[in-house]
Amino acid sequence: xxxxxxxxxxxxxxxxxxxxxxxxxxxxxxxxxxxxxxxxxxxxxxxxxxxxxxxxxxxxxxxxxxxxxxxxxxxxxxxxxxxxxxxxxxxxxxxxxxxxxxxxxxxxxxxxxxxxxxxxxxxxxxxxxxxxxxxxxxxxxxxxxxxxxxxxxxxxxxxxxxxxxxxxxxxxxxxxxxxxxxxxxxxxxxxxxxxxxxxxxxxxxxxxxxxxxxxxxxxxxxxxxxxxxxxxxxxxxxxxxxxxxxxxxxxxxxxxxxxxxxxxxxxxxxxxxxxxxxxxxxxxxxxxxxxxxxxxxxxxxxxxxxxxxxxxxxx
Length: 315
Known about the structure:
- The chain has 9 helices and 7 strands, in the order βαβββαββαααααααβ.
- It is of the alpha+beta class.
- The strands form 2 sheets. Strands 2, 3, 4, 5 and 6 form a 5-stranded antiparallel β-sheet that branches. It has a two-stranded parallel sheet with strand order 1-7.
- Helix 1 crosses helix 4, helix 5 crosses helix 6 (about 220-250) and helix 6 packs across helix 9.
- The radius of gyration is 26 Å and the shape is globular.
- The model has no long low-confidence stretch (mean pLDDT about 90).
């Protein structure tokens, strides 16, 4: 391939502004995570309480595995709580056992429950009331290495800015790659497209399995899915080839130190020792993929650094 132009391309700056509402939302989420659940022993469960329950459930389609959960916190009246749970557990006491059915909609967010009718047997273990900590300096100190609530807000802001800058750079890089590919059209080998399709399908199946869904039970039309993914797979291959071409042209290289640092970063995120991860990556031949990924990122960063970034229109 031959790229006609990749330097000095114009791209509009993507905003990295962080609103006060975003900061307060993050504080609220942290406050929710640090909430205490105080036991209630002098009355029955009511809306707003968190009922600790054990659940046994049988799907209407008997071929699916039974639901068996020992300790679940169910918020009565909560946005994600099915109305049948609210109706049957309001007014209950520890030791009560409730039996009822729930019919889930076809578009339910949990694919393993979508369209299913479940027969539940629920035992009430305890009734608790959620108590949120007050937003003050003590809250900030208990949340981590923060000297005050203001310090916590400042660090949340800095984290958001960093996240938004990363997202903004990625969006601008994608727009630049679209321009490069549009200005220098070329065909790609079919075998590379097939390899990319297989990689995308494997990633999709792994995502399903991580959600506890067996792809075999969904009766999916894999050929249709492949057809739907084909254009994106072709685009992915083109991006990879363009970045390889630019990397060679600009003599982009990745040092052993950079590979080592990336392995250390992955190990830290996976809570593994560097030695264990390095051994597995070497055995699987994955260190070359890490090097390729780093080279792709460095080439993308180079394309953005060579671009003419313009202020958003109207500013």
